[in-house]
Amino acid sequence: MQFDPGNTIVKLCAEGMNYEGQGKAEEAHKLFQQAWEEATNNFEKFIAAHYLARHQSNVTNKLEWDETALHIALQMKDESMKAYYPSLYLNIAKCYEDLENFKKANVNFHLAQSFADNLQNDGYGNMIKSGIRNGIERLAGKL
Fold first, then answer.
1. What is the DSSP string of 54-99?
2. Exposed/middle/buried for residue 39 (C-beta within 10 Å: 0-12, 13-18, 19+)
3. CA–CA distances in Å: residue 124 to residues 53, 71, 130, 135, 139
């Protein structure tokens, strides 16, 4: 799925990311919320939910938005979306870990790992793979 830089939702999220980079979290959150409210298709909803997850004040709300983004991505039945699965499952796993639900965290870390082959072999892909490995290692003594 290609990002269209002219898409209204993409523009709102990009502007929100700019605010985020300036340390203006509240302004960023408002734009991501606006993107969610104005989204007209699953791809736009996926993007907005992903960014809304990053701006939640507690882990439970972050988990809810991360799971929303994942469920939307899974519904899209687009092969290119599989590149997002490792990161989505990693985010969900980390939320469960933070909530001390180590069993669900472990399941999601392993789901993230099962889709890791869909990542590029670049800085971002390697960062996600490292996060997955580290999460699995952290949980090894807690299960």
1. TT-SSHHHHHHHHHHHHHHHHHT--GGGGGTHHHHHHHHHHHHHHT
2. buried
3. 19, 22, 10, 17, 23
Please say if the pLDDT value at position 1 is more than 80: no
Residue 104: helix, strand or coil by DSSP? helix
Helices (H) and strands (E) in the chain, counts: 7, 0
CB contact at 8 A, 31 and 55: no
Token pair for 18: 């700019």
Beta carbons of 95 and 62 less than 8 angstroms apart = yes
Segment 16-35 shows an average pLDDT of 96
| Mean pLDDT, the chain, whole residue set | 94
- Cα separation, 64 vs 79, in Å, equals 24
Q: What are 96's two structure tokens?
A: 């469960």
> For 101, which DSSP code?
-
**89-108 residue pLDDT tens:** 999 999 999 999 999 999 99
Confidence of residue 19 (pLDDT cuts 50, 70, 90): very high
